[in-house]
Amino acid sequence: MIYVLKDLCNTIAEVYGKSILKGVFIMKHTLKVDQVRDGLWLDSDITYTQVPGWLGNTTRDLKLSVIRHFQTNDDTRYPVIFWFAGGGWMDTDHNVHLPNLVDFARHGYIVVGVEYRDSNKVQFPGQLEDAKAAIRYMRANAKRFQADPNRFIVMGESAGGHMASMLGVTNGLNQFDKGANLDYSSDVQVAVPFYGVVDPLTAKTGSASNDFDFVYRNLLGAEPENAPELDSAANPLTYVNSNSTPFLIFHGTEDVVVPIKDSEKLYDALVENNVPAELYEIEGASHMDVKFLQPQVFKIVMDFLDKYLTRS
């Protein structure tokens, strides 16, 4: 009976092109694989600048993480997306969204998650100064990362969306350039804020919730209604002009933290100044909703970038 079963198994193996070793099917394949995408590296927590630390008495590093492509050893250059995480300027993590943003890297972008100081360490415009330092660092090191210095995109959510907007409207304003690599520009080519804060005052007074009112006082060092000059300095609407970079704005219709009307005001101001702009109001989306991370939204972003980025 044992020999009959062994012969039967061997017959089956011969029919199906499989070998048997100690009762286990061994399957051997030859596979031709098409190379349809790049390999990616992650450079995590690179120091891009140093700033005052504990009570101004020490020095601390600011970090960024880079998802980049395998080296091609030629003149290939990739556009760069700078991502600024939210957190009410109170707590940020520059790595937190990198898993979601790999989609952009797979489509030919370099993705940079940027750490910036929270409002417990510095008040505005310290955060904007940090962001511009990160952009200058990447421009100074463009060859190392195969980055295209003429195709820099800024993107962020909530407080990070405010950062993206401020960067998009302050090209050429040298007062926010502090620190290292000052021989390089901090200008950007496209801004993509997701449910970003615009005017701190109207964000506070227009919010459906007062749970986060304190974040604007912490950012400015005063209540925005009591400090109009500080509020104006931190308001992207103050700086919008015909030289502002193209904007793609996203906001959820059910956002109770940052009023959607503020994104509409930003869009209107851009259009009035003949700045290319598009606004997408995501039906039913709340603040920091997973709907913003869906392929449908990312495709809109990439189509917009294809339209307004000039390839070097």
Automatic annotation (TrEMBL):
One of its GO terms (molecular function) is hydrolase activity. It comes from the Bacteria. Keywords: Hydrolase. Residues 72-270 form the BD-FAE-like domain. Gene3D superfamilies: alpha/beta hydrolase. Pfam families: BD-FAE. InterPro entries: AB_hydrolase_fold, BD-FAE-like_dom, GDXG_lipolytic_enzyme. The keyword Transferase does not apply. PANTHER family: AB HYDROLASE SUPERFAMILY PROTEIN C4A8.06C, ALPHA_BETA HYDROLASE. This is Hydrolase, alpha/beta domain protein. It comes from Limosilactobacillus reuteri MM4-1A.
